[in-house]
Design a protein that fits this description.
Distance between the termini: 35 Å
Structural class: alpha/beta
Radius of gyration: 22 Å
Strand content: 15-25%
Helix content: 25-40%
Shape: elongated
Number of helices: 12
Number of domains: 2
Strand order of the largest sheet: 3-2-1-4-5
Oligomer: single chain
Largest sheet: 5 strands, mixed
CATH class of the largest domain: Alpha Beta
Amino acid sequence: MPGKNAFYAQSGGVTAVINVSAAGVIETARKHKKQIGKVYAGRNGIIGALTEDLIDTGKESASAIAALKHTPSGAFGSCRYKLKSLEESRPQYERLIDVFRAHNIGYFFYNGGGDSADTCLKVSQISEAMGFPIQAIHVPKTVDNDLPITDCCPGFGSVAKYIAVSTREASMDVASMAKTSTKVFVLEVMGRHAGWIAAAGGLAADKEGDLPIVILFPEVTFNRKKFIARVDAKVRKHGYCSVVVSEGVKGPGGKFLSDQGLRDAFGHAQLGGVAPVVANIVKEELDLKYHWSVADYLQRAARHIASKTDVDQAYAVGKAAVEMALKGHNAVMPSIVRKSNTPYRWAIGMADLEKVANKEKKMPASFISRDGFGITAKCRQYLAPLIKGESYPPYRNGMPRYVVLKKVAVPKKLSGTFNI
């Protein structure tokens, strides 16, 4: 008799390598059929569990699951849907347990960021209280690289590589046109409260001073006068300047420069549009011709230029999540532990979700240059290994070959519907 079934779901913003973690979970579970029965996936994340909309991954071929390793986005669908506290959302947590009980699910693998870690912890707690224990394992993922305990987050290395490469290429473009055209290029990147992605723009230069790059971090309060002085100095010296700005940069009053007053499903400020704000400041103060761009979904969907380090780590945490569950662990997260920088070595560790949930890891002061507009050698030493190595997808007729799963639905067992 096989053991209990497993449930896997993807949460929040997807990445170039979240499907790699999915493959790690599913392939590892398939190797332990005596302990784990079927692996179900939630259609559109945790919503799939709440609405009993489950996908039978057993209907997918081994080659299709393997192809997830080179396919971007969320193969099973993700969502931005936050379960609040047990007191506020108890009916929803009880619904999850009812669905898990109905489908004999004893393992819960939740692939996401900080909010997902919190949900995973709460599912573990309420399942115990309801007499149907669930081993809940959080599989780390976030391009923002802001989860604590782990050295880095799967998804970040590939975004960092994309931003570093794009900043270098765009800077070369601007340099060639600066004499008679654009002199300042502004690239907006993701990062609500932590500047890890923006910092990756600093890798565009092999060493400090190679390229005229100015970085705006969420951790550093935006100072208009100092910023303009720095851009002006770069343009005077090099003839042009590239600015990498995090979406989460704040002004002296603590308000996001790009805050339009909108909120997302988690209640967070809906950001975006800081690039034109910064570009207009350059125009107003220096009257220089500019161009701006928003990396947006491109940075997190770019599987064609993913970091091999990131791909390897994404698979490792998915595999480790299953192995931890089989060893009886609960309410934990596989973490990445850096063993050495040169040569770069890493291993898988384990973190308690109570130390992960609702906590945010920002850029340390030692990673940001004294003037607040660049990265230090220490930061470069941290970032450099994370973007190393290429892991190209297979190509056909000039285009990458990505898999689209069948996503066969599991017959429902509960009566009625559940409104989310």
